[in-house]
Design goal:
Layout lengths: L20 H12 L8 E5 L6 H14 L3 E6 L4 H9 L6 E5 L4 E3 L3 E3 L3 E4 L6 E2 H9 L9 E7 L6 H19 L10 E8 L3 H6 L11 E4 L5 H14 L3 E2 L1 H11 L3 H17 L4 E2 L1 H25 L3 H11 L6 E2 H8 L3 H13 L3 E3 L4 E4 L4 H8 L1 H4 L7
Parallel strand pairs: 1-9, 1-10, 2-8, 8-9, 11-12
Antiparallel strand pairs: 3-6, 4-5, 6-7, 13-15, 14-15
Organism: Bifidobacterium vespertilionis
Keywords: ATP-binding, Nucleotide-binding
GO molecular function, one term: ATP binding
């Protein structure tokens, strides 16, 4: 039996990375163009379900194909210690790991570099010298190096981010100071990925200011024609067919949201499979869209709403009353019974968090597709959690 080609599981590589070609080329060129190439330090932001984890997987695949070593991490407690362990020779066993917040870095700041003690090491390893020692290994050839990807960066502690940023900064400077030709220099490439609000917090830290020079990319919705073509191609390659009109109907329903693309594709393909049909028809598209909306609410809308404070929830609940149409800020003020300044404040906050976006003069709309449907389905469950916060 043919396998469903769509992969809506978080982090699972989909058949097509729709609309990410430019970003993938930026990363590949950064590895190919030698020391100092833009893109070797990259900050990627996007809402949940925008394919950040998938993109990091693709970056590591590209790096491995070029014989770079790769390390994949997700931000959580002990991040720096795990990086040191991953960089250390296999015959060195960690005895004790601890962050040391009082290491001084001349010309930068007093900051944690993440110390870890090893049984066979005369001196404690820091992330900085762990990177340098690994780069000295014969296993890493000329012009190659180490790629580190860090997912869910917004969950990282400030101490860990400072440790990583300062270590990479010093290692890069040490490499630049050698007499080796740029094409032969070994290097470090690091990609941070996280939710939109983490970007300003990361680059504005007084110790990690060098990250302001990093390549920043915010993932956007895929173009609807590209989604339609992706449906046509993926379905065809799986041994089934779908008509142009049905593919466009399904594409419009996704609003170009990458995770929704995978959900709609998965469920409409599965609907045809249950009928033992090789043709995905209008009925399958309708079934797929219905099931996808339910799954999308649980996987994307619920965690997105969890991060919004009560006043923000009230703002969003008032927006949801307009259905799929954009909302007028004046109407939100009337429904919420709040002042215009309150509306302007939370409008700015929610736009900054990429929950909503401007849709014309005095108009706003949800960034996440079907978010209004989700809120309306919750009804009083959302309203009950809203309290006034001036």
């Amino acid at each position: 039996m043919a396998a469903n080609p769509f992969k809506p599981t978080a982090g699972k590589m989909p058949p097509i990375l729709i609309g990410r070609d430019g970003l993938i080329e930026d990363f590949a060129e950064a590895l190919d163009n030698g020391a100092g190439a833009p893109g070797r330090i990259m900050l990627i932001t996007g809402q949940r379900g925008f394919g950040k984890t998938v993109l990091l997987t693709e970056f590591r695949r590209i790096a491995a194909a070029r014989h770079w070593e790769t390390i994949a991490e997700t931000a959580s407690e002990g991040l720096v210690d795990r990086l040191i362990a991953a960089l250390s020779p296999s015959d060195i066993h960690m005895d004790q790991a601890s962050l040391n917040p009082s290491i001084g870095i001349p010309g930068v700041a007093t900051a944690s570099l993440g110390q870890a003690h090893f049984q066979s090491a005369v001196e404690p390893f820091t992330l900085r010298n762990a990177l340098l020692k690994r780069l000295e290994s014969r296993k890493i050839g000329k012009g190659r190096g180490i790629v580190i990807t860090i997912d869910e960066t917004q969950a990282a502690s400030e101490a860990d981010l400072v440790s990583i940023a300062t270590a990479v900064q010093h290692v890069t400077a040490s490499i630049d100071e050698t007499d080796v030709p740029d094409a032969d220099k070994k290097g470090v490439a690091i990609v941070f990925a996280g939710l939109p609000h983490m970007l300003n917090e990361l680059v504005n830290n007084e110790v990690t200011t060098f990250l302001r020079r990093a390549m920043r990319r915010e993932l956007e919705n895929a173009l609807i024609p590209d989604v339609k073509n992706a449906f046509l191609e993926t379905v065809r390659d799986s041994g089934k067919t779908i008509g142009e009109d049905d593919a466009m109907t399904a594409a419009r329903e996704t609003n170009g949201y990458p995770y929704m693309v995978q959900l709609v594709g998965y469920y409409m393909w599965q609907s045809a499979q249950r009928r033992r049909s090789d043709v995905i028809g209008p009925e399958d598209v309708e079934n797929g869209m219905r099931d996808a909306v339910l799954a999308f609410g649980d996987a994307v809308c619920t965690p997105a709403l969890d991060g919004v404070d009560p006043s923000g929830r009230l703002f969003l609940a008032c927006m949801a009353q307009d259905g799929p149409s954009p909302s007028r800020t004046a109407d939100i003020a009337d429904r919420a019974g709040r002042s215009r300044s309150w509306v302007n404040k939370y409008r700015s906050i929610l736009i900054g968090e990429r929950m909503i976006r401007p849709a014309g003069r005095g108009l706003i709309e949800f960034t996440v597709p079907h978010f209004g449907d989700y809120l309306r389905s919750k009804g009083n469950a959302v309203d009950a959690q809203t309290d006034y916060v001036p």
